[in-house]
Amino acid sequence: MTAEDTVGPRIRGQKMSAKIANVIADQILTGGIVVGQRLPTEKEMVAEHGVARTTVREALRLLESRDLVTIKSGIGGGPVAKRPELESLGNTMKLFLQIDSANISDVIDVRLMLEPIVARAAAENVTDEQIEVMQTALDRMREDPGDYANFQENNAVFQRCVYEAAGNPALKIVMETLWLLVRDAEPNEHPMATRLAAVEMQQDVLDAMRARDAAATAKTMSAFNEESAKYYRRRLADIISQPVHWQL
Q1: What is the sign of the dihedral through the CA atoms of 34, 36, 40 and 45?
Q2: Alpha-carbon dihedral angle through residues 229, 235, 240, 246, given to the nearest 10 degrees
Q3: Which element (helix H / strand E) includes 98?
């Protein structure tokens, strides 16, 4: 058996380092290697795959660049499995948005189009447990509206739960990434009145969702996002009109 045979099906023209990286990536993404678990040492990988140390290191660099591995230094260090966060996808999306000279206002327009569709799907698929999670998030935002970190944390819980409730993993990933792009463009805290108004409009969305009224949920979500868009364009016009800037 050759070294190439040990890393699965032959892929014409693919470097050995990429083949090894793909095998490890599959193990991490399917749970064969759990997050936080140390991978075999370089020496062990060299012996397992029958390749040079430089090939193993290149495979690990590929995995690290995709946020699937982190390399810890020092005694007891080495490659450790991780899973990429959606912030990584958002940063990649920024690269393509910058290429096309897109700005955050363009992202807001996409959300205006898609959020009511997501809300409608959520109303049709939401569980009682998800409704409870969203209600708890809104209640916590009301408890201490002056605590901005608390507001941000629970607003994120609410938004992500809506996307989760829609029942489509691909849609959830897209919507959460778009939401993060807009959120991360915010330079300052939102005024208190804006926070309180947002919570009440989100409550309208949740009440319609609790009634499993898809049309009303889409309508209230559209109203919430239109009001949010007006806020961004009134108070943050200079920021959201600037082309998106990608950075490492």
Answers
A1: positive
A2: -120
A3: helix 86-99
Helix (H, G, I), strand (E, B) or coil at 246: coil
How is residue 107 written in tokens?
């992202």
CB atoms within 10 A of CB 75: 5
> CA 111, 121, 148 angle in degrees (round to 5)?
50
Token pair 């290697």 is at which residue? 33
Q: Which two tokens stand for residue 55?
A: 């090939």
71 strand-pairing partners: 79
What value does the CA radius of gyration of the chain take, rounded to a whole number of Å?
Answer: 22
How many C-beta atoms lie closer than 10 Å to residue 163's C-beta? 23
Domains of the chain, each with CATH number or no CATH: 4-81 (1.10.10.10), 87-240 (1.20.120.530)
Q: Kindly provide the residue ranges of all beta strands, DSSP E only, lying in the chain, ordered along the sequence.
A: 69-72, 78-81
Through-space distance between the first and last CA atoms of the chain, rounded to whole angstroms: 41
Residue appearing with tokens 């912030």: 87
Write out pLDDT tens, residues 99-144. Answer: 999 999 999 999 999 999 999 999 999 999 999 999 999 999 999 8
Phi and psi, residue 38, nearest 5°:
-75, 135
- In the block, residue with structure tokens 């393509």: 96
- Rounded to whole angstroms, how far apart are CA atoms 82 and 69? 5
Q: How far apart are CA 26 and CA 37, in angstroms?
A: 14
Stretches in the chain below the pLDDT threshold 50: 1-6, 8-13
Measured over the CA atoms of residue 133, residue 137, residue 140 and residue 142, the dihedral's sign is: negative
Sign of torsion over alpha carbons 28, 32, 37, 40: negative
